[in-house]
Amino acid sequence: xxxxxxxxxxxxxxxxxxxxxxxxxxxxxxxxxxxxxxxxxxxxxxxxxxxxxxxxxxxxxxxxxxxx
Length: 68
Hints:
- The chain has helices spanning 3-19, 59-67; strands at 22-26, 39-43, 48-51.
- The longest helix has 17 residues, at 3-19.
- It has one domain (3-67).
- The protein is an alpha+beta fold.
- Strands 1-2-3 form a three-stranded antiparallel beta sheet, with helices on one face.
């Protein structure tokens, strides 16, 4: 995947999460079993993770989660 396509998918995931009151946070790097290098979804009102607490979601997973 090219850098521009990956970046566009990243923005789509973040926008989809924001529209339903969540924040999509991407890990900087994969450094352990607890950090898989993907995304986690944070509930903005409670500041708690609602999905992907191990940073194990892809951008496509975030978009699908927010569409439901």
